[in-house]
Design a protein that fits this description.
Largest sheet: 9 strands, mixed
Radius of gyration: 22 Å
Number of domains: 1
CATH superfamily: Alkaline Phosphatase, subunit A
Number of strands: 17
Distance between the termini: 38 Å
Structural class: alpha/beta
Strand content: 5-15%
CATH topology: Alkaline Phosphatase, subunit A
Length: 471
């Protein structure tokens, strides 16, 4: 993990100053609107995705493009992929040989091999913010952690645009916060930013805090629950079931007295959060969407009985229940060291199972056409293996791979191309803002879509253009 400060150049300050209260500079906004009126843009309504919901598989730490979806078997030296490639069910498309179940259904995948961003690759937080919002984080020194000055995450935007449904929040993240090393060190881009905490996504945090620990192993004795079970705070104790909770609340109201600060925003927020908590406890059947106890052991085995597999199975249950966006975090990809062993043994095998099972399960239930599945991380990894002992690959934002499936996206295609070292895009480069705009496009939102901050000022949600040829 590199720790450094970023000096703010004059150019950076000018770029930051060019961001208007609407979220885009006027030239950017006019350019985007002009694009929307071109022949290509005019077809956007016809080509728009069919997604009602999205499952975002987020690879915390930054997955290597060379050992996943952009194999470079002919690259020189240590730039060469460490694993053999495998043919898929789409002629001409090859992916990592450790992803055979995904290779079997490449006809459902749109692989983008040319995504990039300008976030400082020293910092995970810059990449997290870019990939979860489509915007750069507010310039500041060091690792950008959560900050109310930043742009809202996609989940926060959907919270405002759609709101809860069927007693469940519009957006959910599990099984953890994206964090460097625990509470108070959550990286930027995961909350509602300047929209305010009212629209923060709902995070189901099962307590896996470290960037480089093996997130996917079974629960330790210190952890009270796993994805697929409801944490203790989400269920009533036995002695409060039935009428007893209502009786206690009635007694509290009878004995209530004016509160210090009554009528202030702080007290109003507290009352709102208390009401939400009671809604959760009183809607146990709805919140059973977070529990996989009713699923068959065979299906769980297909996903993988580990944190990633269980989280993906919960994600399917949540979109089936009406949740708009579920973000699944799968960590351990920051392989500055032990790159070979960790990707081979800990990372690629569970990804192969869970990702492929999710696609099959959604398709079997008739949900894939209306559910966009997106795969990304904060950046890729360096073309060259470093000199660490054991060696690894470092951060690389200049090009990396992402994947889309379902939600109206045409499968069986590769978009964009990196150079022979997987170091730079050489064909159809896709700024990460365009990748995020493509997700919004699939969900029915475009350059004119805005959200409003607490001062009722509008902000455009897109900083890029959707890649319409993917649909």
């Amino acid at each position: 993990m590199l720790n450094a400060s970023i000096p703010l150049s004059r150019r950076t300050c000018l770029q930051a100053g060019g961001l208007s209260a609407l979220g885009l500079s006027l030239p950017q906004l006019m350019s985007a609107k002009a694009f929307a009126r071109t022949e290509n843009g005019a077809s956007s309504l016809a080509s728009r995705g069919t997604a009602r919901s999205c499952i975002l598989l987020y690879m915390l730490g930054g997955a290597p493009q060379q050992e996943t979806f952009d194999m470079k078997p002919e690259a020189p030296g240590s730039a060469r992929s460490l694993f053999p490639s495998i043919a898929t069910n789409v002629p001409g498309i090859e992916i990592c040989g450790l992803l055979p179940e995904l290779a079997r259904q490449a006809d459902r995948l749109a692989i983008i091999r040319s995504v990039f961003h300008g976030g400082n690759a020293l910092f995970h937080g810059a990449g997290v913010h870019y990939n979860l919002t489509g915007f750069p984080s507010v310039p500041r020194e060091g690792e950008p952690f959560l900050d109310r000055r930043d742009y809202p995450s996609m989940g926060a935007v959907l919270n405002q645009l759609r709101g809860p449904r069927n007693g469940l929040p519009a957006t959910v993240q599990l099984p953890m916060w994206i964090t460097q090393d625990g509470p108070g060190r959550e990286w930027a881009g995961q909350n509602a930013g300047f929209l305010g905490r009212k629209y923060d996504p709902h995070v189901m945090d099962y307590g896996y805090l470290k960037l480089n620990v093996d997130f996917n192993q079974t629960s330790s004795s210190a952890e009270s629950s796993l994805p697929g079970t409801l944490p203790p705070g989400y269920t009533l104790n036995d002695d409060l079931r039935g009428l007893r909770l209502g009786s206690r609340l009635d007694l509290q109201r009878v004995l209530g007295r004016p509160q210090i600060g009554e009528g202030t925003a702080l007290v109003r927020d507290w009352a709102k959060h208390q009401a939400q908590a009671l809604d959760v406890l009183g809607a146990a059947s709805t919140w059973k969407s977070f529990s996989i106890e009713e699923e068959s052991p065979a299906l769980l085995a297909r996903y993988g009985d580990n944190r990633l597999g269980r989280s993906c199975l919960v994600a399917r249950r949540l979109v089936e229940a009406g949740v708009s966006l579920v973000t699944v975090i799968f960590g351990g990809w920051d392989t500055h060291s032990h790159h070979l062993e960790h990707t081979r043994d800990r990372l690629l095998p569970p990804l192969n199972l869970a990702f492929s099972a999710l696609l099959d399960d959604l398709a079997d239930r008739g949900l894939l056409e209306t559910t966009l599945v997106a795969w990304t991380g904060e950046f890729g990894r360096t073309p060259m293996i470093n000199g660490n002992n054991p060696p690894g690959r470092d951060h690389w934002a200049s090009v990396y791979s992402t994947v889309l499936a379902g939600g109206g996206v045409r499968g069986g295609q590769v978009y964009g191309k990196s150079d022979k070292l997987a170091a730079e895009p050489v064909d159809n480069p896709v700024p990460v803002a365009d990748f995020v705009a493509t997700i919004y496009h699939a969900l029915g939102y475009d350059v004119d879509t805005t959200v409003v901050d607490p001062f009722n000022r509008p902000h455009h949600i897109l900083a890029g253009r959707p890649v319409l040829s993917l649909f």
